[in-house]
């Protein structure tokens, strides 16, 4: 008689194999997940329908449900879960929370799940509750999430980040969880230092990074990439957006250095390009890397030097030449003076501009994209190649499957959830 849950599971598997309910091929013995024969979220066109008036031909498969390939990564649809800080870690470790949170998006058919901004150095965490990838000890917790996502047939990447002058802040949703000893207020850094470069009074006064420290951070991006690869990540996304360290270097608002990391656009982009080359050199060459960029500081209403879309186009071209495989186009986050006109698809025009001016580089659009029809329209207009959603997935983890149904696709559910197709 089986005595432990493990024994019972083994018996159940043996029984299912004997009865032919599963095959050894689809059931790796090293874990207890049934790898589905088709990826959840993959789809086929609606079939032809016969009516009294005649047969309506089968429609073409919507662009949103056409698979996308970059290097050896193929995703079954073009709906990506955007990275979202969950402030649910301690000392950088991913937990059961991440397993369930990220795993459920894969189980519910997202084409690609991007894990939250994950710090490449302890001082690069946005808050003490942020995930980290700065120690080999973090690898097993991350790998556990990756293995589960893969077991569903899904794909996953991780966003690599250094928060720079926006580090050591209180976790957004649970500001009082960590004691003062968990913060590193005196070790917050940026391209330029001093009170003039403090983001606002909820942030710390940064110290200016030395060239040696900049080089150390570039290396730390490389070491983090090796860990992501070891954990089995299908891709990594370099976080160059939202006012974190890379964006801080790009923008003259936060970068007023007088050495070769400041001044001209070429100099301000130097750190980003060094990071891209380091990440590329340390990741499996067969796997793609992504870059997230804020295409504008969103201060066009002010007469101040800033990072804006014309510069973003040039930087994206340089990033493409340095080895990125797709660009994820967001905006803002580098100054409280910004004005962002939030409306449906409010950042798509930036994605569109970059796609037009940097041909040959796949573009991910993000920002208030909340329905399958809206997403499909963006792709049909040629504004982007892929769509990402953050809040839409928090509201409806089934967002990708729902989009498929809305567009009339015969979309595949995870086998365990197959019955939902008929609900
Ligand atoms: C809870 C939450 C956490 C976020 N954390 C991150 C993050 O870790 N990295 C990042 O690049 N963007 C982050 N964002 C921004 C989203 O990825 C996305 O760009 C933004 O929410 C706009 O997309 P949406 O309208 O689909 O939500 C976060 C957004 C939310 C709502």
TrEMBL record:
Its cofactor is FMN. Gene3D superfamilies: Aldolase class I. Residues 64-401 form the NADH:flavin oxidoreductase/NADH oxidase N-terminal domain. It comes from the Eukaryota. Keywords: Flavoprotein, FMN, NADP, Oxidoreductase. It holds the Pfam family Oxidored_FMN. This is NADH:flavin oxidoreductase/NADH oxidase N-terminal domain-containing protein. It comes from Linnemannia gamsii.
């Amino acid at each position: 008689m089986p005595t432990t849950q493990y024994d019972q599971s083994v018996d159940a598997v043996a029984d299912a194999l004997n009865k032919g309910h599963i095959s050894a091929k689809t059931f790796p013995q090293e874990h207890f997940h049934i790898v589905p024969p088709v990826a959840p979220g993959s789809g086929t066109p609606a079939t032809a329908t016969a009516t009294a008036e005649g047969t309506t031909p089968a429609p073409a498969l919507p662009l949103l449900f056409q698979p996308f390939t970059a290097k050896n990564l193929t995703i079954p649809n073009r709906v990506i879960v955007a990275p979202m800080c969950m402030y649910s870690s301690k000392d950088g470790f991913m937990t059961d929370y991440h397993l369930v949170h990220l795993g459920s998006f894969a189980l519910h058919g997202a084409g690609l799940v991007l894990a939250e901004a994950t710090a490449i150095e302890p001082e690069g965490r946005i808050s003490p509750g942020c995930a980290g990838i700065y120690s080999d000890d973090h690898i097993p917790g991350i790998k556990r999430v990756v293995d589960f996502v893969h077991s569903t047939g899904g794909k996953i990447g991780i966003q690599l980040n250094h928060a720079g002058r926006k580090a050591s802040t209180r976790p957004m949703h649970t500001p009082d969880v960590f004691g003062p000893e968990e913060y590193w207020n005196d070790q917050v850094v940026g391209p330029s230092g001093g009170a003039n470069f403090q983001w606002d009074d909820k942030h710390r006064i940064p110290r200016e990074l030395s060239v040696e420290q900049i080089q150390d951070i570039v290396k730390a991006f490389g070491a983090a990439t090796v860990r992501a690869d070891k954990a089995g990540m299908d891709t990594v996304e370099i976080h160059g957006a939202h006012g974190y360290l890379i964006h801080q270097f790009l923008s003259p608002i936060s970068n007023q250095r007088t050495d070769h990391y400041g001044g001209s656009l070429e100099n301000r982009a130097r750190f980003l390009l060094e990071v891209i080359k380091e990440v590329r050199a340390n990741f499996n060459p067969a796997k793609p890397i992504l870059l997230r960029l804020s295409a504008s500081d969103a201060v066009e209403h002010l007469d101040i030097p800033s990072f804006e879309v014309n510069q973003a186009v040039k930087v994206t071209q340089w990033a493409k030449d340095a080895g990125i495989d797709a660009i994820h186009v967001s905006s803002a986050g580098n100054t409280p003076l910004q004005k962002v006109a939030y409306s449906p698809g409010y950042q798509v025009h930036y994605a569109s501009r970059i796609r037009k001016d940097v041909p040959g580089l796949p573009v991910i659009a993000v920002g208030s994209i909340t329905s399958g029809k809206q997403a499909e329209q963006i792709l049909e207009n040629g504004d982007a190649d892929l769509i990402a959603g953050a809040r839409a997935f928090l509201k409806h983890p089934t967002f990708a499957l729902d989009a498929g149904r809305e567009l009339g696709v015969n979309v595949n559910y995870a086998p365990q959830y197959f019955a939902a197709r008929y609900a």
